[in-house]
Amino acid sequence: MLPSAVCESAGANGGTSLNTYLSTEMENHQQHMSDSSYLTTTTDFYERVAESPEIGLCCVGGGQLTFPDLCIPADMEAMSYGCGSSVQPQDLGNARRVLYVGVGGGKEALQFAYFTRRAGAMIAIDPVAPMRVVATRNLATAAAGNAWFDPAFVEVRAGDAFALGVDDASVDIVAQNCLFNIFEPVDLSRALQEARRVLRPGGRLSMSDPIAIEISPRTCAAMRDFARCA
Q1: Residue 54 burial class via C-beta count within 10 angstroms: exposed 0-12, middle 13-18, buried 19 and up
Q2: Which run of H or E residues covers position 168?
Q3: Residue-level pLDDT at 133
Q4: What is the pLDDT of residue 148?
Q5: Is 227 among the domain residues?
Q6: Number of domains in the chain
Q7: Most CB atoms closer than 10 Å: which of 47, 128, 158, 188?
């Protein structure tokens, strides 16, 4: 695939990665943090970066997808806080409804909407209110640069991986990018069970997460209580 089209130029600041941030928080608070407090730390981090796009917020970089007549706004591209892509065109032919977990800047929600192209077919959830605001703004910008796109094609809602907020067996695809890899085993199990609950028979869970096939480096091992890098 060629690099995706960007509608206009925009800068993005290099900054602290999520894993580095979590590692610092672990060192500062390890003796006092509960088992689930890493989730609060993650939410706090994304609240901070919602209005200040930063590069390198995932363990690895990812390739870009391009589709005819799809233009990604520069501000949306700058907030592409993921790795690889959960958008798999070969799986989208019969998808009537897609649920995206962790909308971020809205890029992959827009890419999914490229295939669904109707109101109610694309739901994007995020627990971070400032991120939902920015994603909604970015999607409105995308409408100006994509004649085929209507912001009504993507419904941005409050929610998280443990409470997806839709009925049982009501979506064809649940997708996430660089999210489930941070979960501790108990929380990962909860997220997978919730995804299974909402998927229709024959539905798909599309995930794009960094993994390691060798022993993680010392810096990653130091974060094992927060980010499951390996």
Answers
A1: middle
A2: none
A3: 97
A4: 97
A5: no
A6: 1
A7: 128
Task: Report pLDDT for 175.
Answer: 96
Give the single-character DSSP code of 8.
Answer: S
| Cα 78 to Cα 19, 73, 135, distances in angstroms | 18, 9, 12
Parent domain of 37: 5-221
Q: Is the pLDDT of residue 8 over 80?
A: no
- Angstrom distance (rounded) from CA 112 to CA 87: 7
Between 97 and 26, the more confident residue is: 97
3-state secondary structure of 123: strand
**pTM for this model (two decimals):** 0.78
Asked if residue 92 is part of any domain, the answer here is yes
Cβ–Cβ < 8 Å for 142, 72: yes
Burial letters 197-225, b for 16+ CB under 10 A, else e: ebbeeebbbbbbbbeeeeeeeeebebbee
- Are 160 and 125 contacting, i.e. CB atoms less than 8 angstroms apart? yes
| The pLDDT of residue 143 is above 90 | yes
- Please state the rounded mean pLDDT for residues 19-39: 55
- Backbone phi, psi, residue 16, to 5°: -75, 125
Q: 228 in a domain, yes or no?
A: no
Residue 200 lies in a domain: yes
Q: What is the pLDDT of residue 221?
A: 55
Which CATH number do you get for residue 168? 3.40.50.150
